[in-house]
């Protein structure tokens, strides 16, 4: 039986926006009445237009900020600030530039109280680097690594805390298409082998559907959960592109329609002209990186 590892219930977050001499300050509701669960060991992705509160929600679950009202429970207990049970991976890698790849991980292991002595921490750090395919880069410094490599180090560092939950805020957003696809499948492999519960934020519909077992779709102003889409897709035959299966295309289209406010077209087929989505439309959302789905601020 699955249980809620993370339970977000009726969460509101209102920020105070300070004024200036000319403009009075005001309150800004970032998210309103947000409800969703992430089950133990589940991989949940979250998409939404810019400003819909994705990062706010992730920060709340990480304990970096507190909700104005509502509750966030981890294993049934209200969270009380950040904790080692929750590792966070941001889009920017936040590695220590003066430490080698290996020492960045050693540093994290020490902070987590893992390893009895330096030699053991170095051995563990090498294991984590091997896990993310970087064992030959142990002595490089962050500025000597590509963006994808830096993000692998950041993921290895987060995993070295052995968190039960991994919170990822657009971790692959700055990477090129090929590296992004590679890291997506590596992340799935790591997730399957560690059993970690993952909440992953992205702008990309493609990425959300590829990675998530469920996709939480947000709407903006204020940010609310519009729908939660189950992504039940069979394993494709070996050698087949998992993004080209009919199931994948159906889920991607459903999430795209929800994001673009066309979900009512799919659900209200009375008007045949209104719900017709041309085939070219599907092709336009089929880019491998999902960049085509990136939503602009203030979409009209
Ligand atoms: N510290 C803050 N003070 C005031 N307003 C904030 C603050 N942080 C976020 N907001 C507002 O809350 C709303 C949600 O912001 P958030 O960054 O969570 O959205 P997002 O979906 O992650 O956006 P993006 O996709 O552009 O990163 C926005 O309107 C933003 O301006």
TrEMBL record:
Domain of life the protein comes from = Bacteria
Q: Which SUPFAM superfamilies did the record assign?
A: P-loop containing nucleoside triphosphate hydrolases
Kindly indicate whether the keyword Acyltransferase belongs to this entry: no
Which Pfam families has this protein been placed in? ABC_tran
UniProt keyword list: ATP-binding, Nucleotide-binding, Transport
Return the InterPro entries for the record. AAA+_ATPase, ABC_transporter-like_ATP-bd, ABC_transporter-like_CS, ABC_transporter_ATP-bind, P-loop_NTPase
User: Residues annotated as region Disordered?
Assistant: 267-300
Domain (ABC transporter): give its ranges.
6-245
Molecular-function annotations in GO? ATP binding; ATP hydrolysis activity
Q: Where is the composition biased (Basic and acidic residues)?
A: 267-276, 291-300
* Protein name stated in the entry: ATP-binding cassette domain-containing protein
């Amino acid at each position: 039986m699955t249980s809620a590892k993370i339970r977000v219930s009726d969460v509101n977050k209102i920020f105070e926006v300070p004024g200036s001499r000319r403009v009075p300050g005001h309150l800004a509701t970032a998210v309103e009445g947000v409800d969703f669960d992430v089950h133990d060991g589940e991989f949940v992705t979250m998409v939404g237009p810019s400003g819909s509160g994705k990062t706010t929600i992730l920060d709340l679950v990480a304990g970096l900020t507190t909700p104005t009202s509502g509750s966030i429970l981890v294993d049934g207990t209200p969270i009380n600030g950040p904790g080692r049970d929750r590792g966070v991976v941001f889009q920017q890698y936040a590695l220590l530039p003066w430490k080698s790849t290996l020492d960045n991980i050693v540093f994290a292991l020490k902070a987590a109280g893992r390893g009895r002595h330096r030699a053991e921490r170095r051995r563990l750090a090498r294991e984590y680097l091997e896990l993310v395919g970087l064992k030959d880069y142990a002595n490089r410094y962050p500025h000597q690594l590509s963006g994808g490599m830096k993000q692998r180090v950041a993921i290895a560092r987060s995993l070295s805390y052995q968190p039960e939950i991994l919170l990822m805020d657009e971790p692959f957003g700055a990477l090129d298409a090929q590296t992004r696809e590679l890291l997506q499948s590596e992340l799935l492999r790591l997730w399957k082998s560690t059993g970690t519960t993952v909440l992953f934020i992205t702008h990309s519909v493609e990425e959300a559907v590829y990675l998530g077992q469920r996709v939480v779709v947000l709407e903006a102003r204020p940010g609310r959960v519009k729908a939660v889409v189950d992504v039940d897709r069979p394993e494709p035959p070996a050698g087949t592109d998992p993004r080209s299966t009919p199931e994948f295309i159906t889920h991607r289209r459903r999430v795209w329609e929800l994001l673009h406010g066309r979900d009512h077209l799919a659900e209200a087929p009375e008007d045949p002209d209104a719900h017709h989505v041309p085939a070219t439309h599907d092709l336009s959302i089929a880019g491998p990186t999902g960049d085509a789905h990136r939503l602009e601020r203030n979409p009209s």
